[in-house]
Amino acid sequence: MDAFERKLLDQVTLDAPWELVETFSRTVRTLPDEVNRSGEMIGERLRARGIPVTLHRPEIYLAVPLSASVEAGGVTHRAKPPTSSLPVPQGRTAPLVYLPANPAALRSYSRDIGKLFGGSIRDEAEARDRVAGKILLTEGFGNPAIASLVEEWGGLGVIAANPGVDVHWGTCTTIWGTPDLDDLPRKPKIPMATVNKASGEALRKVAEAGGSATIRSELLEGLFAQVVPEVRIPGTDGTDDFVLLHGHYDSWDVGVGDNATGNATLLEIARVLWANRAQLRRGVRICWWPGHSTGRYAGSTWYSDAFAIDLDEHCVAQVNCDSPGCRWATSFHDTTSMPETNALVTAAITEVVPDAVVKTKRPKQAGDYSFNNIGITSFYMLSSTMPDELRKEKGYYDVSGCGGNIAWHTENDTLEIADKDNLLRDMRIYLLSVLRVTQPELLPFEFTATAENFARTLARYAEAAGGLADLSPAIAATEEFRGAVATLQRDAAAGAVPAARANAVLKRLARLLVPLDFTTGPRFTHDPAYSTGSLPCLAAAAELKRHEGTMRGFAQTQLLRGRNRYVAALREATRLVRFADG
Prior knowledge:
Blueprint lengths: L2 H9 L3 H10 L7 H17 L5 E3 L2 E14 L2 E5 L8 E11 L14 H5 L6 H8 L3 E5 L4 H9 L4 E5 L30 E4 L1 H12 L3 E14 L2 E6 L8 E7 L7 H20 L7 E7 L8 H9 L1 H7 E6 L11 E5 L5 H11 L5 E4 L16 E2 L8 H7 L25 H19 L8 H19 L6 H22 L5 H20 L30 H33 L1
Parallel strand pairs: 4-5, 5-6, 6-7, 10-11, 10-12, 12-15, 13-14
Antiparallel strand pairs: 1-9, 2-3, 2-8, 4-8, 9-11
Helix pairs in contact: 2-8, 8-13, 11-13, 14-15, 15-17, 16-17
Organism: Falsiroseomonas bella
């Protein structure tokens, strides 16, 4: 850690951030008017510290849960409707069928029925036969993958039994942000409700006895003007390049761990960076999003759309800040990072926490990762969390935030979920990580690691396909790119390639490779909200053995087209790198 980094980290205090955490612990931020008042609060605190802030007011689409219940066997069970579930205030009644979920997939965003249901159904045909015309009961949270599959199978509704005594809010739409005309057909056409474990067990007995269930739900839906606070801190290198640091400020109820602590982190980093702006090489933009919870990332999606060309030309990285500084969150074994930033985030965390064991993981199609289709290098979503051993000791199940506290997405996410010491530590980690992108003359992204990840993925797909697929052109293109980018990064580090030229190439590489690894749709659109594996354009290779006859031919055609996309992108990346290395 150099002297400038140390100086800025020493300036971080809890004074302003903790005041915001305490204020938000008394401030519900779910309904549109509540969210707007909270956005104004953030703006007031920034202005009070002399930091210029723009309060954008876009109209974004929200589907806010109001109430729900499930009635079966003469008993009415407490429930919550996930966002974007079909409202059925008069009720929808149908026979109840139970399919056990794979426990490892409780918070999965995958649409793989083997992963979701753990072998309890063999294939799509069996699923349709068992679910069509019925309400499905299964374990898990509000899940867009399950909701969309049940709708495709002809099901009439979904009841998700949460794993504990609480009922968690969630979402069930695969639409990312405000829908466009192409997205609208994916708007959920069936209701979904979540209940707690005890209700789930009671409902299972009803299903096994051949009974029916009734789902009732109400939601507030429409376009709402919502406040998006944005701080722009200029850099001094004359390029207009910037890092985007961001997190959502809407919440379920008062949402302290998810995400008042993140809002406070952004506030403090804005204060420190603004005070030291004359020494920043690259700029920083800091944004607080509405519409994360009730709009499926509608705030960050709006920003991605509204400033798409600016982001394309000048954003060198996006950094998501969700649920830092929570109680018992002392581990970094679940740190989100793209391959090219793994070394950066590992080094930043271990410099702040020398004994930390950092394990990085692939970003899910979740959080406010609304920038993948543009192609922006990204890191962090959830950072610190409680150790697995402690979670098991407490009997906690796996959740997607709040540092592993099962208060996540419930009314229990209150002030005691925040931890002052952990928050101070995490603010410093975020600040140092951002500085590690703003300050070096040469951008610190290691695309050799991306190439190596591609090579491993291709090897896995080739092995799974056996002799049914020819991935050799993709493997050859990967090896060629890996050698070329390794040479460029070595020469740039040695000063043989001007940093400005190398940086332009590294930005462009992200625009090519991030969409290839994380998206299926075109640039400047938004993929559905379910996760894919690495290199989804080639993922059909792993499924070829499952198909027979005509279906195998269709799958091989899909793979051939995906291979063409992949090879063309890697060859373009190689030409770009070699031209820069001149």
